[in-house]
Specification:
Elements (H helix, E strand, L loop, with lengths): L4 H13 L2 H8 L3 H15 L4 E3 L4 E3 L1 H28 L4 E7 L1 H7 L1 H10 L3 E7 L2 H10 L4 E4 L9 E16 L10 E2 H5 L3 E4 L4 H12 L6 E5 L2 H9 L5 E4 L11 E7 L4 E9 L6 H14 L9 E3 L4
Parallel strand pairs: 3-4, 3-5, 7-11, 8-9
Antiparallel strand pairs: 1-2, 5-12, 6-10, 6-11, 6-12, 6-13
Helix pairs in contact: 1-2, 1-3, 1-4, 2-3, 6-11
Length: 311
Amino acid sequence: MDVTLRQLAAYAAVARAASFTAAAGEMHMSQSSLSRAVAELERTLGTRLLERDTRNVQLTPAGVEALRVADQILSTHRAGIAQLGRFLAGERGAVALATLPSPAAVLLPPVISAFRARRPEVTVRILDGLERAALERVAGGDADFAVSTVARPRMPGLELRPLVRDRFEAVLPEGHRLAERPEVTWRELGGEPFLAVGADSSVRRLTDAAFAKAGVEARPAAEAANVATVGGLVAAGLGVSAMPALVHPLVPPGAWVRRPLVEPTVERRLHVVLPLRRALPPGARAFLEQLEEFRGSAYRLPEGVSWDEGS
């Protein structure tokens, strides 16, 4: 049956008002157009819905049931359109965010909290992992965008927006001779048993590059995939390490200290990574707006971390 929403709305208005004249005013339609819509509905259904005379409009038994069904369909339609409107306004739906563990645990929680307070019907799904996994999730469509380091400044199909700069610091056991200094050079750090983060980590890529720039061949005395494990090894006095400032809150408290690393000064740059050929869902756009609001606010980043203004 080719029944339209317009026909159902016209019929429901007449049935409730028991008057074509009153219903036409309510629907902002001419009475002739309203009568035609109701007649088309009756013709499609193959039955009379209304008994009419010059003064009265009464529902037939079929008309009573038709009104119940029409109200149900129109109510569902209005609710669906309202839900679609909230989705398009970024007030419903989901955001899938791929990210490194350190921004997931330290940088993003206050942003997510503020976002959820404003948009409680939007679910935030955090896909934390290493750099390669984060970028692959954006490229493959599993994530709307990512917060990650990027080894190559230009990547096909992806757009990079600078987010924060994250300074590398030496991580030393308490009482270590280098802990007495206000800052430590990479060459000095390379002369100690070095505890490295796993080879798949962006931290490892940057520490290897820093040692090479300093002219030091630092062979790891041990390595672990998890920065918390490396921190525990440092606290146990088994060696020294280097980590960006945003990572330190992930390391359990213990007998270790941190000192700025120099010669060279090394920063890890985190970007918002976006797909170039895929439109962001409204909720994801709203989340990025919330993130930009934090950038422009007085929100204090952890020591050693700063907003990246580019270049």
